[in-house]
Each structure stands twice: as structure tokens, then as C-alpha cells.
């Protein structure tokens, strides 16, 4: 409600007083009721409730802002290549040229398992081997579930229990099974991936290729070819095209610096490379920030790769367009 003008208040008081005045004051009454120029308006502070709940009579914005499409995040984790080795893959190098690449990204430990744990819980838990460890329930998967965010972790080669190795599937490359020593319902065989991409894509998708396709047991060329066959399905989806992002990283490098290639693949990237020092905690921080989740462990202090996740602003429409 707009505050009353001081001139109108004065007029109202004079009009009320005139009701008891003698008839000889009629001329003065008429003069007092004449319109006056109002002084400056000093509105009182607007209550918070008035800002949050506009009245039904308020006019709609002629150009309302559309509700942003919920973001989808895809993650593919490859194996055992330093930056200089992974970038030699033909398809991988094409992705790096077209999208965003972190040129100063490091694994956090050796061997594989502690890196997978770092990506999903913000800590290595002091683990320095690839054996099975009974860790407390929690991690990124639990965060997503508690927040009501649909997710799936696709494990290529997994059949039956996620705690059983075989058919190219390695438990050490499935971090979600370690938290609470259980197989979450969201951890499924990779054979379901194509069906889910066609039917309804989860908000968070994690993909662990089998021990050959991730490059652990096979050549860089074979691993690169697997990416060339898998990634286009993601890039063709509306889930990726509408504010989505795909991260491809390698768990650990084979050089003294533990350098690994990490790609941030999203539509219309503003920056195509970043030399800032990033690691697996940065990746976790970027994922959690994307979903509005609290950061776990060392991700709380990590840089979340915001420069690589910046996108070009949409083109401005001309008047009359």
C-alpha cells in the first residue's frame, strides 16, 4: 500500500474541523478543500512478507523469467593415464579442443581406490590399497538420495552383486559399494544405460567402464574408441543439451606429478581451458555445488572449476525480433 500524502492528511483534518464551524466559514472551507501539490513521500520500510507474497492485484511482469531446467551431471571415470597419454586418443583430443579441459589437474593418491573415494566422499580414508574396506555409510550417493535427487551409477560388466568382481567389473572402481558395505539400488549394470537414456535420464549419472574399456587392461586407442561410442549418446540427450555437463576424468596418472586429463563438456563453454590447480576434490565440489549439496571432506576447501563451467550468455534479442 502506498503511504498517504501529507497534503491529503492536512486537508482531511481541516474538512473534519469545518463540520463544526459557523456558516461564515464556508468560503474558508471551500478554499481548504482545493487540491494542493504534495510534498516528498517518505514510505515506511516494506515488511518482508509483502516482498515474498505479492498481492493478487499486482501486475504480472511483462517478461517473466522462465524457471531454469534442472541440471543433469554425467561422470565417466577412466583409468591409469597421465594427461600426456590420455590426450593422444583421437576422440578424446577432439573433445578437449571443442569443450573445456583442465590442464593442471591431479589425482590425489595411488592406487585406484583412494582416488574413487576422494571423488565421492572428499577423503581417501587413509586407504593406500585396492582392497575392500568397510566404510561408514554416506558419500555422494547418500547425499543425492537424501536430497531426493535421482541418480544411477552404471557399472559395465557387473552381474549380480556389486560386491563381486568378474566379467571385466572391478569392485575397486565402484566407490558407492564401500559406504556401508552395501549395494545401493541405484548401482546398476551398464546394460541399462541406453534404456534409461531413452526413457528418463537420472539427474546424476556415473559411469564406470569395464577393465578394458577404461584403459586399465587395454590400450589408449581401445579406451578412446569406447568413449567415441558412448559419449555421443549423452551429448544427443536433452538432459545434456539443457544445462547439463559431462565430466570425463582419469583416476590416476603414471607420471611423478600424478597428472590426469579432466574434461568439462557442456553446451556453449565460455572457456576452453584452465591452468588452475584442480584435483578430484575439485570435481566433487563442482558436482555438489551443481546440486546445492553441502561439500564433503576436502571438497569444502577445493576450487570447484567455476571457470571451466562458465557458459556463454544467450544472444540478446533485438527490439521487434
Helix and strand layout, with pairings?
Layout: H1 6-18, H2 26-33, H3 48-52, E1 73-78, H4 83-86, H5 90-98, E2 100-102, E3 105-106, H6 112-121, H7 139-146, E4 151-155, E5 187-189, H8 193-199, E6 204-208, H9 220-235, H10 238-241, E7 245-250, E8 262-265, E9 273-274, E10 278-279, H11 280-291, H12 306-309
Parallel strand pairs: 1-6, 1-7, 2-9, 3-10, 4-5, 4-6
Antiparallel strand pairs: 2-8, 7-8
Helix pairs in contact: 1-2, 6-11
Task: Kindly report how far apart the N and C termini lie.
Answer: 37 Å
Name the CATH superfamily assignment: Alkaline Phosphatase, subunit A
Write down the secondary-structure element order. Answer: HHHEHHEEHHEEHEHHEEEEHH
The CATH architecture can be named as 3-Layer(aba) Sandwich
Structural class, judged by helices and strands? alpha/beta
Structure in words:
- This protein is α/β, with parallel strands linked by helices.
- It has a single domain, classed as Alkaline Phosphatase, subunit A.
- 31% of the residues lie in helices and 12% in strands.
- The strands form 2 sheets. It has an 8-stranded mixed sheet, with helices on both faces. Strands 3-10 form a two-stranded parallel sheet.
- α1 packs antiparallel against α2 (26-33) and α6 (112-121) packs parallel to α11.
- It is globular.
Summarize this structure as a short list of keywords or feature phrases.
321 residues; alpha/beta; Alkaline Phosphatase, subunit A; 8-stranded mixed sheet; two-stranded parallel sheet; 12 helices; 31% helix; 12% strand; globular
Short overview:
The chain has helices spanning 6-18, 26-33, 48-52, 83-86, 90-98, 112-121, 139-146, 193-199, 220-235, 238-241, 280-291, 306-309; strands at residues 73-78, 100-102, 105-106, 151-155, 187-189, 204-208, 245-250, 262-265, 273-274, 278-279.
Amino acid at each position: 500500500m502506498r503511504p498517504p500524502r501529507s497534503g491529503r492528511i492536512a486537508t482531511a483534518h481541516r474538512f473534519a474541523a469545518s463540520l463544526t464551524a459557523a456558516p461564515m466559514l464556508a468560503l474558508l472551507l471551500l478554499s481548504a478543500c482545493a487540491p494542493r501539490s504534495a510534498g516528498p513521500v517518505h514510505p515506511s520500510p516494506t515488511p518482508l512478507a509483502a516482498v515474498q507474497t505479492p498481492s493478487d492485484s499486482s501486475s504480472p511482469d511483462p517478461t517473466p523469467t522462465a524457471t531454469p531446467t534442472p541440471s543433469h551431471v554425467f561422470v565417466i571415470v577412466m583409468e591409469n593415464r597421465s594427461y600426456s597419454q590420455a590426450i593422444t586418443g583421437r576422440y578424446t583430443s577432439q573433445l578437449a579442443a571443442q569443450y573445456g579441459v583442465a590442464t593442471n589437474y591431479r589425482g590425489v593418491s595411488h592406487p585406484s581406490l583412494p582416488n574413487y573415494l576422494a571423488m565421492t566422499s572428499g577423503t581417501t580414508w587413509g586407504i593406500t590399497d585396492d582392497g575392500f574396506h568397510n566404510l561408514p555409510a554416506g558419500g555422494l550417493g547418500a547425499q543425492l538420495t537424501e536430497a531426493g535427487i535421482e541418480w544411477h551409477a552404471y557399472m559395465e560388466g557387473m552381474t549380480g552383486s556389486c560386491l563381486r568382481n568378474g566379467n571385466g567389473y572391478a569392485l575397486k572402481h565402484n566407490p558407492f559399494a564401500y559406504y556401508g558395505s552395501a549395494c545401493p539400488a541405484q548401482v546398476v549394470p551398464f546394460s541399462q544405460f541406453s534404456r534409461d537414456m531413452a526413457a528418463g535420464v537420472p539427474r546424476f549419472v556415473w559411469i564406470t567402464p569395464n577393465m578394458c574399456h577404461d584403459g586399465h587392461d587395454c590400450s589408449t586407442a581401445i579406451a578412446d574408441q569406447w568413449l567415441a561410442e558412448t559419449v555421443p549418446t549423452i551429448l544427443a540427450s536433452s538432459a545434456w543439451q539443457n544445462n547439463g555437463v559431462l565430466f570425463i576424468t582419469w583416476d590416476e596418472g603414471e607420471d611423478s606429478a600424478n597428472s590426469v586429463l579432466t574434461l568439462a563438456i557442456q553446451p556453449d563453454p565460455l572457456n576452453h581451458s584452465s591452468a588452475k590447480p584442480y584435483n578430484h576434490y575439485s570435481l566433487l565440489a563442482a558436482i555438489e555445488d551443481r546440486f546445492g549439496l553441502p561439500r564433503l571432506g576436502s571438497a569444502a576447501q577445493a576450487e570447484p572449476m567455476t571457470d571451466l563451467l562458465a557458459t556463454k550468455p544467450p544472444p540478446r534479442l533485438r527490439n521487434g525480433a
